[in-house]
Design a protein that fits this description.
Bound molecules: flavin-adenine dinucleotide, iron/sulfur cluster
Order of helices and strands: HHHEEHHEHEEHEHEHEEEEEHEHH
Number of domains: 2
Largest sheet: 8 strands, mixed
Strand order of the largest sheet: 5-4-6-7-11-12-3-13
């Protein structure tokens, strides 16, 4: 625990009551292998005391901790009750019978990890579509819709930039995504596509070295946990400000649907390059779809097509505790599940999201979402895994109720009925 080194420097200083220190986050989340590398703790720290360890991609203390407790309070794997940020579900217009359950902010730990029972709808949804960009960028993951929305927002002057992910410039790190603030159309297009590693994205909200206007307006694209961090910081203001990080500048949030993310070295280097002999310089696309890891080379050859369970050891352990597959607190959620290949499933959740999609309309093909039920099934799976993870924390001998891969196959297939066992 590096934080303890700095703590030693404070020896002799009497500790005021009621403090929560960084090293408590370090012990309970980071060293416990539960950190999902969202960067919220970095962004929330009012004294800029938390940085990113570039070797591990984990938070580290870089200055004295004041014990203000904010890093713990806002951490999705720490004190944050992220499910309390979810607006109540709304029935989808084309599926009025979808069950709707208004969220409870119960003190029950079951809610903390599962966000409530499965089958409670898609969250707040004002519009839902299958969408494809008219001019789909080369590197786009699915319909290229995230990039199209950002391009339209920037062209209209609605945003000055967007926190997205681009390839690491380090040749030793092929296919590693790193967070970046894109301020031009070219930078947005170059950042299209998915990286299956977390980027500590919210640390990128430190705008001190940029020449953005004094009152910048930004979009953030992130996994649902990253959007949880933004939403929490915006919804629950605290005195002392956010240091160098401009949480107030974020006017649009786009969540990428997500059941799990991976450790870069474990997935790309150890599993794909070293164990399976992949030439990462020839890779054109990495995808996790229908319960399988699929890697395609530039010449169209499928280099890997294996059950995702084979890569479970490379996944971030903290993702097993996550129940927010659908990115419920975002303005817009986007994913591949629920739509056919090269289209994206889009859930518009707020007025800001609706306006952003409206801006991009001229650049998009829109049609009815192919299979909204597939989204519900995968959401239910995600919550059940989170629930089971909690049960195993309480009772380490509790059996897994179904193999993970079997679940994914059952829930992600758009043409198969889910297999659900009673709890
Ligand atoms: C870790 C991860 C897991 C996912 N799991 C699922 C899933 O289980 N089911 C599903 O339906 N969809 C999942 N997705 C979403 C899917 O891969 C696509 O990102 C989504 O469909 C949008 O595609 P698009 O073509 O519209 O976006 P594009 O136009 O290609 O734009 C994608 C945007 O996302 C940004 N981005 C890429 N990687 C990251 C990252 N790691 N962190 C933050 N921003 C990033 C890019 O910079 C770009 O701005 C996942 C994405 C990620 C990153
Ligand atoms: S999960 Fe996020 S907020 Fe928590 S320690 Fe990791 S980076 Fe920080
Ligand atoms: S599964 Fe959840 S915790 Fe893990 S990266 Fe995705 S949104 Fe974050």
């Amino acid at each position: 625990m590096k934080g303890f080194g700095i703590r030693n420097e404070m020896n002799g200083v009497e500790e005021p009551p009621g403090k929560t220190w960084f090293w408590e986050l370090e012990a309970g989340v980071i060293d416990a292998d539960r950190c999902i590398q969202c960067g919220t703790c970095v962004a929330v720290c009012p004294s800029n005391s938390i940085g990113v360890d570039l070797e591990t991609n984990l938070p580290e203390l870089v200055k004295l901790c004041t014990g203000c407790s904010l890093c713990w309070d806002y951490c999705p794997r720490g004190g944050l009750r992220y499910e309390s940020l979810w607006p109540p579900s709304t029935p989808a217009p084309d599926a009025p019978d979808t069950p709707v359950v208004v969220k409870s902010d119960s003190a029950d730990p079951y809610w903390k990890l599962t966000g409530g029972p499965p089958a409670d709808g898609l969250g707040a949804v004002v519009e839902q579509y299958a969408v494809r960009a008219g001019a789909r960028p080369d590197g786009a993951q699915d319909g290229g819709i995230v990039t199209a929305i950002l391009l339209a927002a920037m062209a209209a002057g609605d945003i000055d930039g967007a926190v997205v992910s681009k390839p690491s410039p380090d040749p030793e790190e092929p296919w590693k995504g790193i967070a970046t603030l894109a301020t031009t159309a070219k930078e947005l297009i170059d950042a299209a596509g998915s990286f299956y590693n977390q980027t500590m994205a919210l640390a990128e909200l430190d705008l001190s070295g940029t020449d953005l206007p004094a009152r910048p307006r930004l979009a953030v694209v992130g996994t649902p946990c990253e959007i949880q961090g933004i939403r929490a910081m915006q919804a629950r203001r605290w005195s002392g400000g956010t240091g160098a990080h401009r949480v107030d500048a974020v006017v649009l949030t786009i969540a990428l649907l997500c059941t799990k993310s991976f450790d870069y070295e474990a997935l790309m280097l150890r599993e794909l390059r070293d164990k399976r002999g992949l030439d990462l310089d020839r890779v054109a696309k990495v995808d996790v779809i229908h319960g399988r890891m699929i890697v395609e080379y530039i010449d169209g050859q499928v280099a890997v097509d294996e059950p995702i369970k084979d890569f479970h050891g490379a996944a971030l352990k903290g993702c097993d505790e996550c129940a927010d597959f659908l990115g419920r607190s975002a303005d817009i959620s986007v994913g591949s599940v629920g739509s056919i290949r090269n289209w994206s499933s889009v859930l518009v959740r707020t007025e800001a999201g609706r306006l952003a999609l409206e801006r991009a309309r001229g650049r998009l093909d829109l049609r009815t979402l192919d299979d909204p039920a597939a989204l519900l099934r995968l959401d239910a799976l995600d919550k059940r895994i989170a629930e089971r993870t909690l049960q195993r924390k309480l009772d380490p001998d509790a059996p897994l109720f179904m193999e993970y891969a079997e679940h994914v196959a059952n829930y992600q297939g758009t043409d198969r009925a889910p297999v659900v066992r009673d709890r």
